Structures are given as structure tokens and as C-alpha cells.
Amino acid sequence: MSQNSLSEPARDVRPIGMTSLAECFASGAPALDPNSPKYVTEVVAYILRAAVGAGASDIHFTVGLSELQVLWRIDGVLQHVASYPRTLAPNIIARLKVLAELLTYRTDVPQEGRLRESPADVEMRLSTFPTLYGEKGVVRLFARSDRYRWPGELGLPEDLLPELLELLHETSGAILITGPAGSGKTTTAYACLRELQREVGVGKSFVTLEDPIESVLVGVSQSPVNRTAGFDYATGLRSLMRQDPDVILVGEIRDRETAETVFQACLTGHLVLSTFHSGSAAEAISRLGDMGIEPYLLRTGLRAILCQRLFRRLCDCAPWSTDEADKFGLTVTRVRVPAGCDRCAGTGYHGRLLLTELLRPEGSEVGRAILERREANDIQEVAVRSGFVGIGQRAMSAIAEGRTSPVEVRRVLGLRLASPTAK
After folding, report:
1. Residue 4 pLDDT > 80, yes or no?
2. What phi and psi, each to the nearest 5 degrees, are found at residue 170?
3. Which residues pair with 130 in a beta bridge?
4. Which of 117, 114, 122, 119 is CA-nearest to residue 143?
5. What is the 3-state secondary structure (H, E, C) of 34-91?
């Protein structure tokens, strides 16, 4: 394999007859000579290409006492792929740094950069971090720009998609897309912006402020923040408001100053899309209040909060079971449980399922709860009484329909199996 092999088309590394991801990885690896001066270059190239073929979202290079472990995050779960002698770890991390144009001689500080050679036009970013036994490297793989382009391709619930599309035609206010890290928030934000642009064409000015820019949007003015130069979200957003924009995408609300600037923008005639870390839509309101945003701003500025989670979808090999339903105390009589086959590499899951909840604060009861500075649980209960369907309820429906398992719901939600008011 040559150094330029990163640009070759990626292929699936899970051949028929294999059930272990590590076995699949090993079976597809080219015959390499450890004594060759190109050995590390070819190993790194194969790891990156194979990860793309397997659909990984992250690659972890973790160095320990005796070995370097390579793990892939697939469908939200880390899986062991391969191990290499610890003596190779510095060279493998150094090769990744070369691809990302980072300083190879600085091993004592964290570094971040974009890989300049990526397979199949997949955007990749490297983050290194010093640890006890050497540097750890994590490569994040971003979805290709031709995937999940429109809101209708995201897998949103049928009852929420028309409501979201309607909200995108608001001329002012903030639409927040929330959830934990890795839940697809940015992908949804990009899809919404593309949908808006498709609807109105050149009739509106679209701008973004991101860290980093994950995908190129044609016809949109995209800007990356640069904190070392003092160009952060809040500073950039204040300047963008003087650029005569109609729609602004802010990559993420991370602090009080950015949050305040977002609400200033949405109350002065701009539609603002942004992402925010929270466990539920109601929790997002509570967290913004804790950051110092006044209740009246939340009540009048927020158009909607879309909270989303990704659950692993059960493979076709998953059987139905009555015992598991009894074990978790569910109201349904039977559920499907993960089994494992060649298609899912023995995991019992294949692909992921998007479950979302949409909260609109303008409702009289919900709006009153916000103005009264009620806690997240109280806001959730008020919303449910008004017809709001939370992710917990949608997860229970997905279990009953056999799309995912009780174990997976517990893994993602991290709480008791969903009650009607669960987050």
C-alpha cells in the first residue's frame, strides 16, 4: 500500500463469515513488512481507510503499559479493533501528526488539526493528548457532505418533521438543537440550513460561525472561530450581526456571553440556529436560565428546542423474547433482544435510530413555567400535560416496535426505563 492509498475508495471490512470486528480488520489487512521504512505509513493508512469502510465515527489510539490499542466507535459504542507493540506508538502518533500538519516534536501539550489526506473525501480531525504512557490520539470522522443533506433524510419522527419545517420559515427567534456529544446535532443543523436555502434561494443571506467547519455549504458564508486570535463565538456573532444576515448558524452555545449574544440576535430580526448540550429540551431551558438568561428572553426568544438521541438499531437477527420484557418490568409482553450475526459483526445491532422531542415554549402553560423559573422536571411535566411527547416515550414505542432493545435504551438514557415524564 502506497502513501497515497488514503485517497483510494473505502470498502467494508466485514466480510461474510466473520463475527468479530477485530477478525474482520485483521483479515483485510495487507501483508506488511514490520522492518520496512514505510510500515507505519501503511499501517496508519489502512486503519483510516478501514474505519471509513466500517462506518466508524471516531478512532482511538490509546497507549498503555505494553501496547497501543486501536478502537473504533461504531454506532456510538467503542469496539476493539487491533493492538500494536507500545514501541510503535510514538511513530504511529507522529505519522498522524504529519497528516494533520502538527508539531511532531511537541509531545507534552495537546494539539488539534485536520488531516490533509482523507479517504473517500471524508473530513477527519486529529486530537492528541499527553498521558502517562505517551500520547493518545483520537481521530474524528465527519459524515460526507452528500449524506443526511435534508431534514427528511435524518429519520425524524413523522409527527415532528412537518412542524420543524414550518419553524424554519420563522423570520426571527432561536431554534436550538440539543443533546449530548455525538448525537448528531450539527448534522441536523446543517440539514435545516440546506432546507432553508433550497426554499428561499438567494433571497436571504445565510452565515455561519463554527468551530470547526465540518461541511462546506454552497452559497453560505461560513467562518471558523479562532480563539488564539481573540475571535470567539461571542465576538464573531456580534460582528456577524453587522453583516446584514437573515439566518445565522452558531456552531455551539458554550458560555453565558455567547448565549446572551444569540438571544440579542434572535430578538433583533434574525433567525438563529444553534446547538447546545443538554439531556432534554426542558433541561436546556433550565441550563440557559442557570447561565443567566432572563426568563422573559427565553419565553419570547426561543421558537423551539429540538432534543435528539441516537440509539443503536437492532439487527434483523434479533429474536423476540418475553423474559426480557419481564426482567425490565415493561408494559409490553415481548421485546427483541440483540443476538449477533455476520452482518452486525456479532454485536446484535446494525445502524442507528434517531429519536427526538420538540418543545415549543410559546405554549401558555410552558411559557408560564419558564417565567416562574420552574425546574426542568416541572417544565417537563407541564409540557407532557400539554401533549408534548418526550424521548422517553418515543424510546418505549421503539422498544415495543422491535426497533431497539431495553438494554440500549438504558445505555443511552442512563436512567430507569422511560416513564411518560422521563427525560
Report:
1. no
2. -65, 145
3. 135
4. 122
5. CCCCCHHHHHHHHHHHHHHHHCCCEEEEEECCCEEEEEEEECCEEEEEEEEEHHHHHH
**Rounded to an integer, what distance in angstroms lies between the CA atom of residue 248 and that of residue 187?**
16
Percent of the chain topping pLDDT 70:
91
Residue type, 19: T
**Amino acid identity for residue 264 in this structure:** Q
Distance CA 103, CA 100 (A): 9
Q: Which residues are CB-neighbours of 290 under 8 A, at least 6 positions away?
A: none
Contacts of residue 34, defined as CB under 8 A and 6 or more positions apart, other chains included, come to: none
Neighbours of 150 (CB within 10 A): 13
Q: Which has the closest alpha carbon to 204: 138, 248, 239?
A: 248
CA-derived radius of gyration, the chain: 23
For 170, other C-beta atoms within 10 Å of its C-beta total 14
Q: Residue 146: pLDDT above 70?
A: no
Q: What dihedral angle (degrees, nearest 10) is formed by the CA atoms of 1, 344, 153, 204?
A: -40
With H, G, I as helix, E, B as strand and everything else as coil, classify residue 124.
strand
Residues paired with residue 112 on neighbouring β-strands, in sequence order: 127
Q: What is the DSSP code (8-state) at residue 226?
A: B
**pLDDT (tens digit per residue) in 245-269:** 999 999 999 999 999 999 999 998 9
Residue appearing with cell numbers 500538519: 101
Domains of the chain: 3-141 (3.30.450.90), 151-413 (3.40.50.300)
Cell numbers linked to 89: 506508538
